[in-house]
Amino acid sequence: MATLADGQGPVEIFNNGKVVGTVKAGEHFLVAPVLNGWNVYLKSGFDGFIDKVQLHLLPDEPLMKLNYAGQKKRWQKLRSAPDSKLGDTASSAKGRGVNYFKTLVQASDGNMKAMARFFSLSPFMDGAAAEGYYPHQWILLHVAGDETFANFLRHQPATLREKIGGTLTSPGDTEPISKPKPYLKQYFPKSYQILFGKE
């Protein structure tokens, strides 16, 4: 966690070359260093890149819960997108007869069949398709919420729970959280209990 150093701010946030928001003086946010700047994640759900500015790091402050509400709106828009806009992950799902983004929206609404359909795609996701699919498991957990996700996990075989637990603790799939287990335990205690017991 961090805040802008005294005298800094507001600072523009860029995503894909466009200004998507600002970091204000005194605002606390999650930060990860990258080349020539910082990736920032705000409580409001905005995320993106800021240029190298002076920050005051807050190592003793608990990590904030990530806000992926905007992702659901993006999934809703992509439900009826043309094939050229789908990307490798959704195209791979379409090859299995699954509308990927429609399934994600339904799963995030608590539809257990849609959630099962989403996780059934796992054996078919590799290469470029996997790069989108596995991080979407992390995002789906956040959008669906702990109660809904735990309810799904309760009714799944141990082998699937083990695979999901592996993905949700793999730092490559849980960015920007590099130590996902303590984060999951804090913000998703019911799902954590089912996946990891009393660890």
Which labels suit this protein?
single chain; 199 residues; alpha+beta; SH3 type barrels; 2 domains; three-stranded antiparallel β-sheet; two-stranded antiparallel ribbon; 9 helices; 7 strands; 16% strand
What does this structure look like?
It is a single chain. The protein has 199 residues and is α+β, with helices and mostly antiparallel strands. It folds into two domains: 2-57, SH3 Domains (SH3 type barrels); 69-196, no CATH class. The chain contains nine helices and seven strands. It has helices at residues 69-78, 87-95, 100-108, 112-120, 128-144, 146-154, 158-167, 180-187, 189-196; strands at residues 2-4, 11-15, 18-23, 30-34, 37-41, 47-51, 55-57. It has a three-stranded antiparallel β-sheet with strand order 4-5-6, with no helix packed on it. Strands 1-7 form a two-stranded antiparallel sheet. Strands 2-3 form a two-stranded antiparallel sheet. A hairpin with a 2-residue loop joins β4 (30-34) and β5. α2 crosses α5 (128-144). The radius of gyration is 18 Å and the shape is globular. The two termini are 25 Å apart. 27% of the residues are buried. The model has no long low-confidence stretch (mean pLDDT 90).
